[in-house]
Specification:
Blueprint lengths: L2 E8 L3 E10 L4 E6 L8 H11 L3 E11 L7 E3 L1 H16 L8 H6 L4 E3 L6 H53 L5 H18 L5 H15 L2 H20 L4 H21 L3 H21 L4
Parallel strand pairs: 3-4
Antiparallel strand pairs: 1-2, 2-4, 5-6
Helix pairs in contact: 1-4, 4-7, 4-9, 5-6, 7-8, 8-9
Length: 291
């Protein structure tokens, strides 16, 4: 969800620059920096950004510089100038000063000002349309930058999913899951219990052992992991804003890998489950970067 875009544009009386910066975020959050007089664009800016983006923290900055075709008109404040001339005349007459120069008089604050040109409603509307058109172009550039990042991340996610599949296959083939191996292990455990105590009911022990063996079976977990692998690959092939759905799948991957570890009754299967958790965590971290 990271990206940057910058677009410059002009109207008849102004030049503007849009900059959009995007970083990761679970939802869409848009922050604006608009110059004075352009605050009325806020609602439309948020609408345009929200129409193209669904996740990420986005900072939208607009700067506007006025361009004048001709020199701006000057306004001379006659009352202020007359007052200065009267005072300077008295000072010259009394010998306290020399005659003032024209440039000196005009340099005094409050004597002369530059009249700010106020655009007509038609000009203001034209400027607003041009600025918003520039924003749409900037958004498209930002989307393209985020899509380029997404394509790179897709390859990384596919690699993590492939690793998960390899580990699921390894768990499927682990010798500790073989029926004969399970019977032999339970038989040893039962023999140890029966030898250690004469008060235990062999039939009850066999029933409890069968229940433990059933609870320790990870067949359902492996089937769900394979289903999640298939769903994740379908989302990556589909493309578009799939970050939230992949985030949900990553949580399900984590849930199943935890269950595999908790049900494991062999060190080899526990090692596979722990490695599975590591890869799933790597997947979850990368999914946070997707829209």
């Amino acid at each position: 969800m990271t990206g940057f875009a910058r677009v410059e544009g002009e109207t008849r009386d102004a030049a503007f620059v849009w900059e959009l910066r995007s970083v990761n975020g679970k939802t869409l959050e848009v922050r604006l920096r608009l110059p004075p007089g352009m605050e009325g664009l806020e609602g439309e800016v948020r609408r345009l950004v929200g129409a193209r983006l669904s996740r990420g923290n986005v900072l939208a900055s607009l700067s506007v510089r006025r361009v004048e075709d001709e020199a701006p008109p000057f306004v001379i404040h006659r009352e202020m100038l007359d007052a200065v001339l009267r005072l300077s005349g008295e000072l010259v007459r009394d010998g306290h000063a020399t005659l003032p120069t024209a440039d000196g008089l005009l340099a005094l604050r409050g004597v002369i000002d530059v009249a700010e040109r106020v655009p007509s409603p038609e000009e203001a509307a034209l400027r607003q349309r041009a600025v918003l058109a520039g924003l749409e172009t900037t958004i498209e550039q930002l989307v393209a930058a985020r899509q380029a990042e997404g394509r790179q991340l897709a390859a990384i996610l596919e690699a993590r999913i492939a690793e998960i599949e390899v580990l699921v296959n390894a768990a499927e083939r682990d010798p500790s899951r073989d029926a004969a191996s399970i019977r032999e292990r339970l038989a040893r455990q039962l023999s140890t219990l029966l030898d250690g105590s004469s008060g235990l009911d062999p039939a009850r022990l066999h029933a409890e052992a069968a229940l433990i063996a059933t609870r320790a079976d990870i067949r359902e977990e492996l089937d769900r992991l394979r289903a999640h692998i298939h769903a994740a690959r379908e989302l990556l092939d589909k493309g578009g804003p799939v970050g939230r759905r992949l985030d949900f799948l990553a949580q399900e991957f984590n849930r199943e890998s935890n269950t595999v570890c908790s049900k494991s009754n062999a060190t080899s299967l526990t090692a596979i489950g722990l490695e599975l958790k590591v890869v799933v965590d790597q997947l979850r971290e990368q999914v946070q970067n997707l829209e």
